[in-house]
Amino acid sequence: MLFLSQLLALIRKELLAILKDPSSRTLLFAPALMQALLFGYGATYDLTHAPFAVLDQSRSAASTEIVARLEGTGVFHRIATLENTSQIAGQIESGDALLVLQFQPDFAAKLAGGAEAPVQVILDGRNSSTAGLASAYVSSIVAGYNADQGATTPLTIVRRAWFNPNFESRWNLMPALIASLSMLQTLMLAALSVAREREQGTFDQLLVTPLTPTQILIGKALPSILVGLLQSTIIFLIIRYWFGIPMNGQVWLMYLGLVTFTTAAVGLGLSISAIALTMQQAMLYTFIVIMPLMLLSGLLTPVQNMPEILQWATYANPLRFGIDLVRRVYLEGATLREVSFDFIPLLAVAAVTLPLAAWLFRHRLS
Amino acid sequence: MAEISFKRVSRRFGNTPAVDNVSTTLESGRFLALLGPSGCGKTTLLRLIAGLERPDEGEIALGGQVVAAPGRFVEPEQRALGMVFQSYALWPHMSVAGNIGFGLNRLPRVEREARVLDALRMVGLGDMFDRKPHELSGGQRQRVALARSLAARPRILLLDEPLANLDAHLRQSMLAEFRRIHAATGCTMVFVTHDQNEAMAVADQVGVMDRGRIEQMATPMDLFDRPATPMVARFVGNGRTLPVTVQERLADRTCRIRIGDRTIAVPGQVAHGPGWLCLHPRDLSPSTEGIAGTISAVRFEDGYYLADVLLDALPEADALPLRLPGPARQGEKLRIALRGGWVLPRDGVPETPIAAPAEVRRGVPA
Ligand SMILES: Nc1ncnc2c1ncn2[C@@H]1O[C@H](COP(=O)(O)OP(=O)(O)OP(=O)(O)O)[C@@H](O)[C@H]1O
Ligand SMILES: [Mg+2]
Questions:
Q1: Beta B320-324 vs B273-279: how paired, if at all?
Q2: Residues of chain B neighbouring A362 (CB-CB closer than 8 A)
Q3: Complex ipTM value
Q4: How confident is the model at residue B12 (pLDDT cuts 50, 70, 90)?
Q5: A252 lies in the same domain as A329
Q6: Does the pTM exceed 0.90?
Q7: How many domains is chain B partitioned into structurally?
Q8: Secondary structure (3-state) at B6
């Protein structure tokens, strides 16, 4: 009870420090908003006209229905109806079609027999973010079809990306922004929180009040986590409703991932903050840290393409797993079991950095 | 109940001994002023008491409880002490009341508010509780910082140059405030200052530090009358030390010394040998009978002409500060009469303990 009321007073103080400052207030939400819009328009420019081709070898009611639904979106325009698999390459290579939808001859039979019936989606990997978006659309349409047919219909999607075998890790920037855009701000906010007090000269004052380091840690971490989640929510809402990118997974699962990810990021930020003597140092350290975090996140370069040593290093990078988790939940509708591995490095980073920060509050190496 | 005791405490930063083998005891309820040149370790000593620094060696006890010793350390939040930092250390986004009430969450709301108002009234800011720090003058901020440390009713109150940034008038009224608060609360107070007059005006004990050591801890009067070391003699009250020869220790606690061509009796208990004659301006007066000297400089100060006089017999020694009734020229010859003063042995350690009240020597490691 006492612990909580002391903690609340501290959290109140921290939120005041963040929100009362007009410059930090605009910094909180404007960049997230702007970046999300900028990236969004950059990445979704082509998606109003997604040309696709169909190779329907099953000629079934189900396949016709799915193609019809796809065309009904107004986004997908069928430019060709193919006769055999050898035609697929031409469509993709020429860039005429962004994707080819293939229903194999046994599709209808499998569907009727209750076996897994794969819809093959072949994507132009050169145009990964648009193709990724298009693929997300297809997923949601298939999911919608599944829902209409009752949950038992075992219709699945199999993706093949051409020209870019690692397409899976590169695909679609947008949902990755939910994690990565908020990270810079969260990290910075946490990094500044202790450094600001050191510069202000109030940190020692904080230490001689009856607050324990654990309380100080939670009191410093929670406001940053809240702000980070709020930013992620803004970006999420923009992506989902402004750009209309369909979400295939569970919102609660994505947020569970985001909370874990943001906590790890804040732990990192607070550790930086506990080392820094001034706000300037804290900012410098944050930029030094954020660069490798971004580069090793898989956001720009697939992790599988990195040298092995760097691949190992990515395990300490919360951003890699934050992005992976959000992407897969958002675009692929991954379940908790499917993304459970992503939680392990995130929790590990949080479990190391948070106690480290608390320890550093009192034992900063001088 | 809140005695402060140091046993052979050292704290080094790299090779700099900031606090060097300090052993001393400050009785509960005392008001100690710490004096010393810049960088002599005053702040470090306060931070050791507060628990913001850990001693490298030695033992610190507060109120009989060991708070720092090899293998034992009581964290600052558990030491129940208040600290006023030189920089005020107010949280800029919280009101005056918020700043003072912060850390009092263990109290019920009503009592908390009463405490805040009480403390504000004590420092004479009863009507300013909802101001923000930036709406206060420097002196008012200082008083808020003081009120904050008072509101917690600490058993020990540490003040690190709390008046450094105030004008002379405000300092005077704040000094009176400190004395009143000390009388009203009965807490043990340690007050760091650069200003000797401040220290002597406010404290019942004054500690003089030099290079990490406490040279002497005594009443203001004893510091003047019986400095324990040449450093104290020079540091306190614009003092000077002249190299003299002690001829004989006399029975009435004086010594016969030879200075130039004169032999005089001066208070002190030093055996035959080289000695220091410690003098303050109050010990000197112009006289036709005195020791011959030459004026090396004159300035007007505090309503007097203050001359620096070099004794003709000791041209290499310190110039003596002499108050003159009227203007004088550089190079003018005159004579100085000595009244009082204090003799110390030249090697710094008296052969036998000085027969003075016990507390004079307290704080000086044997
Ligand atoms: N964190 C630190 N790291 C390294 N050296 C330090 C540190 N803190 C103090 N020192 C050194 O220890 C010595 C004593 O410093 P301290 O701050 O205690 O002096 P002070 O008496 O308070 O001086 P001032 O009157 O100027 O405030 C100085 O030489 C200082 O340079
Ligand atoms: Mg200092």
A1: unpaired
A2: 75
A3: 0.76
A4: very high
A5: yes
A6: no
A7: 2
A8: strand
